[in-house]
Amino acid sequence: MEPPEQLKEKVLSEKRLTNRLRLVTTRLQDAQQEHLWAIAAAKSEGLSIRKIAAATGLSSSRVHQLLHTNEALQLPQWLTSVSDSQSNRDQQSLSKEIQSLKKFQQRLAEESEVMRWCIGWLEQLACGERVVINLRAESDSRTAFVGVDQKWVLRVLNRIAADLDQLSGYSTTHEEGNAGVEPIIAGIKHRQRLAEPEPELSSLSQREQRAILREKMGLSPY
What we know:
By secondary structure, the chain is mainly alpha-helical. Strands 1-2 form a two-stranded antiparallel sheet.
């Protein structure tokens, strides 16, 4: 006769194994039921038996056989509702993303237009010309003409910069953006941002010359 401790451990072990088998069996049954419902739902949505068979790894005859079982014929109504609901949510989400993108693009286009105004004003001011603008919209029959000076243009550009920071979702300084970047590469990008031409290659090291040439060719600097 086994000692009480060993007998107790044996009973507990058998109980654990039995519970595990029951759990696995339940999961298997649930998976098989969901598998069958997925096949039936796909067929009800218009997917051909051949495509269902290819997606599930079953033969067409086996898919046809499963679709004629009582479980498949009793496809729960809520399953179709869930599928329709998910499809509607996906379409709504996509529509919102498209609308958001269009608004973002429109804002950028508006900012670009005002920046071009600023460029034109600065060019006129640099030539000693007087710049006069209308503060009322084109659709307004009334007018409100005022003179524009350099301080005015700078104020507009500062406003544009602030709005672009808001559109980007974050604001960082140029130095922080270049932290940890190879100085030569950072220098190339910095001059590009300033619309400054590259220095004469003869005044640079071979490494700098190679980095600039590769950048112009659209290649990695190294």
